[in-house]
Amino acid sequence: MTATADAPTAAASPSAAARRRPLAGPRGRARRRGAALGLLAWLVGLLFFLPVAWMVLTSLHSEQDAATNPPSLGASLTWDGYRTFFGADGGASPWPSLINSVTASVCSTLLVLVLALPAAYALSLRPVRKWTDVLFFFLSTKMLPVVAGLLPIYLFAKNVDMLDNIWLLVILYTSMNLPIAVWMMQSFLADIPVAIIEAAQIDGAPLRTVLARVVAPVAAPGIAATSLICFIFSWNEMLFARVLTGVRAQTAPVFLTSFITSQGLFLAKVCAASVVISLPVLAAGFAAQDKLVQGLSLGAVK
Amino acid sequence: MTAPTAEPHAPVTPAPRVSPPQPPNRLKAWATRAPLLPALVFLIAVTQLPFVATLVISLFDWNSLDPDDRHFTGLSNYRRAAEDEALRESVLTTAVLTASVVLATVVLGLLLALLLDREFRGRGVVRTLLIAPFLIVPVAAALLWKHVLYNPDYGLFNGALTWVAARFGDDSPPQPDWVSEMPLLAVEASLIWQWTPFMMLILLAGLQSRPTDMIEAARIDGAGNWQIFRYLTLPHLRRYLELGVLLGSVHIVQNFDAVFTITAGGLDTANLPYTIYQTFYQAHEYGQASAAGVLVVIGSIIIATFALRVVSSLFTEEASRS
């Protein structure tokens, strides 16, 4: 245990007195093994985090320092990478693409909620015949490859003049996330005991009141988790965005791919861009770790 | 995204959630179904209709660079697709990529989950560190691996090799060009890095939902760590392992970002999504791309039918509970 000392949040570690006991006998051996495994967990954790840390560090280096071999750990830090990314040197500004990403992610998430909430409500609280079949239909649409529908969507968009239009992405992202959202919210809403709702109804409460007073408070965390995941998936999506947008409706991930050809010439800038674009997802994900797991497993893991 | 439903006949008897029995009433029945309709109609319109269109287009000889020569050609696109070496190879690549990444992430994720299931100082911090790779935007992660880690001249990997070699007085350590020497492995490594945390999170949740009393009882009866793992933990984790494999496969089969960014489909790393994207977006062979798309969907239906059976068994407990 002592080997892994410098952590701020100790998750229920044995008391200090217990730790000071001499490491001898079978208990001491078990404890030493525990300490070694704790240390191993730290090592693996740091190893997985290393590329992320390295990305942040590189983004804060000058281009010369970023491209050295062996790496220059002691180099002075600078915001130049971020400045270039935000168009300081006359490059394309990332703002339009960031705004497009926000628009597409937020609007599609809202649309998903509008469509998925009633559906999940019908599937979990109200009797719908063959409800499991309906539920599996939703999931099956998620399992089939996006590419198979891409061409007709492209042709359709071209004919109705919706290429390079952010609202087309909003619609597609909604369809992409709707099945997941229905599943997740169905599982969250199913946690609400039917008895409570019935009791409220018998007491003569109108549907509106039942929803607002009984269903909403219990379901709110689940709805929040669902929104978060829809937002992340939309924010990350690239295939649709790449094929269906051009200049005006370009999203942040597509903007990022414009750096691919640079072959690392602007390493600090690429890293700064990656950090900026990943930041909303990182922040949201760290803030809602538990809900994230529950949501990503379609509510099956509780 | 499309396609007819593979409806599994879930071995579930949906316990009727019907409130007090009411007289069957057409209006009432529609009222309960109505909230479902917007979502259903939307999903069918946006995902199933395009697939029908793909089916139709796949029967035409249609190259967008030569739009006047569009004509019905029957199944010849399928014959060409079946004979297409590149397509067959991309099927193989997709299978290898998906299987290896899912297998590696599940094994690594399980080991990590077991490590994190113990109590040690800073467990919350380690967990947060481990989640980070999963939260990096996929394109950004692929760029990070390609330029910052793999780059043969100043990537971190070769930089570390140089640094370590210099400690031992070696001035010319090996400096492999990772992406061109081991392209598929390079793509796989970046995906494994991104998806291991996801598996770890699901399996950790599984570990933490284990009934502790049973483990205590087994320990009192003299069961060793391995026996407890083999006969108690692993069976309990089965549902979570299946869920992880299923969700991981669904996402990795469809991976586009990593292949597109790291190798641009070169060096035998083109998977199905990339090959179809290329056939239609760069080669403008609409009929060909559609035929390939239909074949992929047929393959996916076969896999999905199987997968949905797995999930339905997974959710049986839940369904019967509700």
What does this structure look like?
The complex is a heterodimer of chains A (302) and B (322). With 302 residues, chain A is mostly helical. Chain A has helices spanning 16-20, 25-59, 63-66, 80-85, 95-124, 131-143, 147-159, 166-189, 194-202, 207-236, 239-244, 252-257, 267-287, 289-296. Chain A starts with 15 loop residues before the first helix and ends in a 6-residue tail after the last helix. By secondary structure, chain B is mainly α. Chain B is built from 14 helices and two strands; from the N terminus they run ααββαααααααααααα. Chain B has a two-stranded antiparallel ribbon. Classes of the chains: A mainly alpha (302), B mainly alpha (322). At the A-B interface, helix 2, helix 5, helix 6, helix 7 and helix 8 of A face helix 2, helix 4, helix 5, helix 6 and helix 7 of B.
Greatest interface and its residue counts? A-B, 122 and 127 residues
Beta-strand residue fraction of chain A? under 5%
Cα end-to-end separation of chain B: 29 Å
Number of helices of chain B: 14
Biggest sheet of chain B: strands, sense, closure? 2 strands, antiparallel
* Poorly predicted spans of chain A: 1-21
**How would you write the strand order of the largest sheet of chain B?**
1-2
Mean pLDDT of chain A: 79
Which structural category do the helix and sheet elements of chain A fall into?
mainly alpha
Major β-sheet annotation of chain A: none
Over all CA atoms, what is the radius of gyration of chain A?
25 Å
Q: Could you say which overall geometry of chain A the principal axes of the C-alpha atoms support? A: flat
- Counting copies of identical and different chains, the oligomeric state is heterodimer
Number of strands of chain A: 0
Helix run count of chain A: 14
In terms of per-residue confidence, which ranges of chain B show pLDDT below 50 for 5 or more consecutive residues? 1-18
Shape of chain B: flat
Summarize the helix and strand pattern of chain A as letters.
HHHHHHHHHHHHHH
